[in-house]
Amino acid sequence: MSRKKARIGAMQALFSMDINDDFSLDNLEVFMENNNFQGDEADYINRVVPDILDKLESVDETIEKNLKGWTMARLAKVDRQILRIAVYEFLYKDDIPKEVSINEAVEIARLYSSDEAPKFINGILGTIYRSF
């Protein structure tokens, strides 16, 4: 399994839900039917996205507390999902080193967001990391 590809899939699923303002598991099912994720990558997305949604309030609260001069609503939708995945991993996945979560988030931002996003995401995640 490519964990990066699985994280990208999770980001895309959350992005789709955010765009449609529909964070239901039905929306996740439609996303999975329309995309070509298989095996461990599909398992990861189907396991992680519902867990992120279940813990979304605490994940978003952690992000919001560390946004200086920003709000969750003001963040680009892509950046919001990238941050959600990384912060979820910080809070709930002890088997994933926080440095790995930061690095993956920055790399995904380089691929899918603006030129400024990697530095922005790195800064926010670095601040959250130092608070642990």
Keywords:
about 130 residues; mainly alpha; 7 helices
User: Whole-number radius of gyration?
Assistant: 14 Å
- Runs in which pLDDT lies below 50 for 5 or more consecutive residues are none
**Structural class by sheet pairing and helices:** mainly alpha
Percentage of residues in DSSP E strands: under 5%
Mean pLDDT: 96
Helix content: over 70%
Q: Give the biggest beta sheet.
A: none
- Counted by DSSP, the helix tally is 7
Number of strands: 0
Report the principal-axis shape: globular
Strand-and-helix sequence, N→C? Answer: HHHHHHH
Q: Gap between N and C termini, in Å?
A: 29 Å
What's the arrangement of secondary structure elements?
Layout: H1 3-20, H2 25-33, H3 39-54, H4 56-65, H5 77-92, H6 98-112, H7 117-130
Helix pairs in contact: 1-2, 1-3, 1-5, 4-5, 5-6, 5-7, 6-7
Overall description:
The chain has 132 residues and is mainly alpha-helical. The chain is 74% helix and 0% strand. It is built from seven helices and no strands. The longest helix has 18 residues, at 3-20. The model has no long low-confidence stretch (mean pLDDT 96).
Q: Concise description?
A:
The chain has helices at 3-20, 25-33, 39-54, 56-65, 77-92, 98-112, 117-130.
